Amino acid sequence: MRRIGILGGTFDPPHHGHMVMAEYVYNEMELDEIWFIPSHLPPHKQKAAVSSEERLQMVEQAVAGNNHFKVSSVELDRKGKSYTIDTMRELTRSNKEVKFYFIIGGDMVASLSQWHNIEELGKLVQFVGVTRPGYDWDGKIPVYHVEIPLLEISSSLIRERASVGKSIRYLVPDNVYQFIKEHRLYESD
């Protein structure tokens, strides 16, 4: 049985924090692959700053050159709110010989028991939480813990810096940096 990690998110834009998280979980959990799944409309966030197509292209750029990282457009293709339960129902139905590991940050683990249809979701996936300082673990749902180095990088920080003309180089993978510059993403008018 193949072991696949799922890393979902808005990826607005994808950054080195996402890549480090995925690489550490890939190694620590001895997974076969990590699938990055950009969300269409996350239920807990506002609309993304750039289009779904641009976010998908940035994630494809970010994972280029890493053979165990793949990109899935399953949530973008489905449209509407991107509930994890809907995605995992679809993925488990079409991938019977796969055990899925859903990767979440420490900030999300704290509210995991409040996720939409969490009981069913817990039967479809094994949760893997990456350690982040300042968040408590919710012991109601079983979660594997993987420690990663602390990188204080966020997509909102990157968007903010880009909007005022500050450098975002070295916060995002080089291909993503070039894509953002070429398409003038996140620049203020």
Outline of this structure?
The chain is an alpha/beta fold and 189 residues long. The protein is built from 8 helices and 6 strands. It has helices spanning 16-28, 52-63, 74-78, 84-94, 106-109, 118-124, 155-163, 174-183; strands at residues 2-9, 33-38, 69-71, 98-105, 125-130, 143-146.
Shape: globular
- Classify the helix fraction into a percent range: 25-40%
Distance between the termini: 50 Å
What is the name of the CATH topology?
A: Rossmann fold
Computed structural class:
alpha/beta
CATH class label = Alpha Beta
Question: Quick one: how many beta strands?
Answer: 6
CATH superfamily: HUPs
Topology overview:
Blueprint: E1 2-9, H1 16-28, E2 33-38, H2 52-63, E3 69-71, H3 74-78, H4 84-94, E4 98-105, H5 106-109, H6 118-124, E5 125-130, E6 143-146, H7 155-163, H8 174-183
Helix pairs in contact: 2-8, 4-6
What does this structure look like?
This protein is of the alpha/beta class and about 190 residues long. It has one domain (about 1-150): HUPs (Rossmann fold, 3-Layer(aba) Sandwich), CATH 3.40.50.620. Helix content is about 40%, strand content about 20%. It has 8 helices and 6 strands. A 6-stranded parallel beta sheet has the order 3-2-1-4-5-6. Helix 2 (about 50-65) runs antiparallel to helix 8 and helix 4 runs parallel beside helix 6. The longest helix has 13 residues, at about 15-30. The N and C termini lie far apart (about 50 Å).
